[in-house]
Amino acid sequence: MTDHNQTLFDRARQVIPGGVNSPVRAFRAVGGTPRFVKRAQGAYFWDANDKRYIDYIGSWGPMILGHGHPAVLQAVQKAALDGFSFGAPTEREILLVEALIKLMPSMDMVRLVSSGTEAGMSALRLARGATGRSKIIKFEGCYHGHADALLVKAGSGLATFGNPTSAGVPPEVVQHTLVLEYNNITQLEEAFSLHGKELACVMIEPIAGNMNFVRASVPFMKRCRELCTQHGALLIFDEVMTGCRVALGSAQSVYAKSIPGFEPDVTVLGKVIGGGMPLAAFGGKRAVMEQLAPLGPVYQAGTLSGNPVATACGLATLQEISRPGFFDSLSSKTRSLVDGLTQAAQKAGVPFSADCEGGMFGFFLLPELPQNYAKVMTSDSPKFNKLFHGLLDRGVYIAPALYEAGFVSGSHTAQDIADTVTAAAEVFASL
Questions:
Q1: 406-407: strand order across its sheet
Q2: DSSP string, 253-279
Q3: pLDDT band at residue 167, thresholds of 50, 70 and 90?
Q4: How far apart are alpha carbons 251 and 359 in whole angstroms?
Q5: Pairing mode, strands 199-204 and 234-239
Q6: pLDDT tens string 65-99
Q7: What is the radius of gyration, based on Cα positions, of the chain?
Q8: Calpha distance 151→153 (Å, rounded)
Q9: How far apart are CA 414 and CA 253, in angstroms?
Q10: Alpha carbon 54 to its chain's center
Q11: Mean local confidence (pLDDT), 216-230
């Protein structure tokens, strides 16, 4: 029987670098042939061989309602009939921004863009422009898109500024980027002691989804907020992955439950707010956001920003996930999955730890949840690859990389969760 996935991959590699348009899709980390998707519906997609998979990547997070939700589909179809793009403002942009501000009161104003990378890059420029400072802090293992200044790994010491992790990024571009260990309060305090007057911002994923799933501890996040306030730096929350995914009010609402009055200064959003369309945003307090052109000196622009079809998709998605009980149900399903996987691994004697929040989850082939990138890197990669392919063979699609979070949608059923746990138990028994 012809493997149509392999045929397509062979063709793709002749005309697309690596055969894919985003590196993780190439299956380089796990081996094997990528699955080329023909169609998707609800919690499933079908590959080029017409094999069905339970989908736990959900387009890497946006498909919180599942694929092809009727209300979203109707909104997109109606918007497309009115026009694909105008290069001029529309009422729907206002409606979407008003909805975001209502969900996240830390933002007074929002600028819409087309991708998470664009939003993160623009938020960084805004922080530097608003503060008149150059240096920034990011954390090892946090991914903020592929803008040059943020493609940095940690140096060997506390005050060592980063080295690029990609060819094509000159060292001088990242000379102002200080990379610290995630959840390390001592490093954070020393960095502010050394560079506090020069720091424009601290940029952080509150739950780091490119380390699989690692939370910033409450004491660590509290100290980030205190030090930024004390030294006049901006605290930027990168919620591209967690925004409207871990809670309706995003991760900042989760931390606000433990830290009275907690708010970031700037929030970066993407994925869920676009419902699967190319749409992202960044927002913050009025005094900061008014530094953007045309009001202020910080330039940012985009031909497709606020695209009318994308905003229709995003607005319909936000309306659906705002319905009473949606997040309670989503959280319950995700917790059921994580608990089931944990029990299956324990029964098989496989070292395993897992965590979740809302519709986002992650697991490690480690006995305890890691708190930083160095510990994440000790997870058993060969064993994960066997787990990945074992699940794939059984019709369960998780991220084809050890260091990526997973996502549950509103369309996943109790049976989907049960089938996934059963498949995992079979694979665990063979590891």
A1: 353-357, 360-364, 406-407
A2: HHHHTTSTT---SEEEE-GGGGBTBS-
A3: confident
A4: 12
A5: parallel
A6: 999 999 999 999 999 999 999 999 999 999 999 99
A7: 21
A8: 7
A9: 27
A10: 20
A11: 98
